[in-house]
Design goal:
By secondary structure, the chain is an alpha+beta fold. It folds into three domains: 125 residues, D-Maltodextrin-Binding Protein, domain 2 (3-Layer(aba) Sandwich); 87 residues, Periplasmic binding protein-like II (D-Maltodextrin-Binding Protein, domain 2, 3-Layer(aba) Sandwich); 77 residues, 2-Layer Sandwich (Alpha-Beta Plaits). Helices cover 27% and strands 33% of the residues. It has nine helices and 16 strands. The strands form three sheets. It has a seven-stranded mixed sheet with strand order 2-3-4-1-5-12-6. Helix 1 packs across helix 7. The mean pLDDT is 95. It binds adenosine-5'-triphosphate (ATP) and 1-O-pyrophosphono-5-O-phosphono-alpha-D-ribofuranose. Its main location: cytoplasm.
Length: 298
């Protein structure tokens, strides 16, 4: 049976459940607190919830076929896994988040090179931290943290390497970013054994295709645009890439109906431009996802 390990906890769990729901991959959990579940897609898929930091190792070991976790833990664990897809969702936003080197707001340093040798840097990411200072040619004393990392300053550390999403935690703890260490996304990973098995590989690629489609779908809105035939030449070039002609209006002769998928970020400008070019009206509809044929994905 194909197996999937998904992130448990306040940061990635809910967003992951949302993505799977949009993809149509229903995660059946006996109870909200249950750490085991199943998905029925091409046969049963076993689902287990684990802490994000544990996921890369349990996928690399073969205990699970596929996992979803943060890029930070994939690098930190040094697990031998392949990334199949990246999704820009964090705890509260649909954007990549960062691992940063931060210092107290009143620290004199303006660059990482200003930090004196022996600077104590608290972090949960000791491997990434060591590598970062090695690459910078600096000698820092990496102090392992198990959370609440900002609180290590000043007694236990002079600086931190920690996750930043909104920046609230740094602000409320009197810290500022000195350097971005990594930019992170949520990633779907698989071990070499999974991809080497042809029966699993195809099922995994099908799951990834649905997740990708769901992630793309939530960033787009379908627009249905009614256009008089004489304005088609000005309206059509302004439709989103990949748009199509849906037909003709049943009520009004000489009116053509176009449809397309507009990225949310461009929706207002696209709407204004289409109306200015001669469109009669535009109807917006929420979409879930567009699933491409297998040969176009993965
Ligand atoms: N705003 C955020 N705060 C903390 N972690 C975040 C945030 N957004 C994304 N992440 C990512 O979520 C994952 C959290 O993994 P971790 O194993 O540290 O969880 P945790 O400390 O056990 O707690 P929780 O998942 O409950 O926050 C990491 O990959 C982290 O980078
Ligand atoms: O930039 P922000 O939006 O404030 O998010 C980042 C904060 O969230 C995480 O802490 P978390 O609450 O998971 O606790 P922890 O430090 O104990 O892991 C992280 O360690 C930062 O402190």
């Amino acid at each position: 049976m194909l197996s999937l390990v998904l992130p448990k906890g306040s940061s990635l769990e809910q967003r992951t459940l949302d993505l799977f729901a949009t993809a149509g991959l229903e995660i059946r959990r006996a109870a909200a607190r249950s750490q085991r579940a199943t998905i029925d897609y091409g046969g049963p898929i076993r689902v287990v919830f684990c802490k994000p930091r544990e996921i890369p190792a349990v996928v690399a070991s073969g205990a699970f076929d596929v996992g979803l976790t943060g890029a930070d833990w994939i690098e930190e664990s040094e697990a031998k896994v392949d990334t199949l897809a990246s999704f820009a969702f964090a705890k509260t936003s649909d954007a990549p988040w960062r691992l940063v080197l931060a210092v107290p707001t009143d620290h004199p340093a303006t660059d990482v090179r200003d930090l004196p040798d022996g600077t104590r840097v608290a972090t949960e990411y000791v491997n990434i931290g060591r590598r970062f200072f090695e690459e910078a040619g600096l000698h820092a004393d990496i102090v392992r943290s198990y959370g609440a990392t900002e609180a290590k300053i000043p007694e236990l550390a002079d600086a931190v390497i920690d996750v930043v999403e909104t920046g609230d935690s740094l602000r409320h703890n009197g810290l500022r970013v000195l350097r971005t260490v990594r930019t992170c996304t949520s990633q779907v990973i698989a071990g070499p054994h999974t991809l080497a098995d042809p029966s699993k590989r195809e099922r995994v690629h099908n799951v990834v295709r649905l997740l990708r489609a769901a992630a793309a779908g939530t960033r787009r809105t379908m627009i249905t645009v009614r256009v008089p035939e004489q304005s088609l030449h000005t309206v059509t070039p302004l439709m989103p890439a990949g748009s199509w002609r849906a037909g003709t209006d049943l009520a009004e002769a000489g009116v053509v109906v176009l449809q397309g998928l507009a990225p949310h970020t461009e929706l207002l400008q696209t709407t204004d431009a289409l109306l200015a070019a001669g469109a009669l009206d535009i109807t917006e509809s929420d979409i879930r996802k567009t699933v491409p044929a297998p040969h176009t994905a993965c």
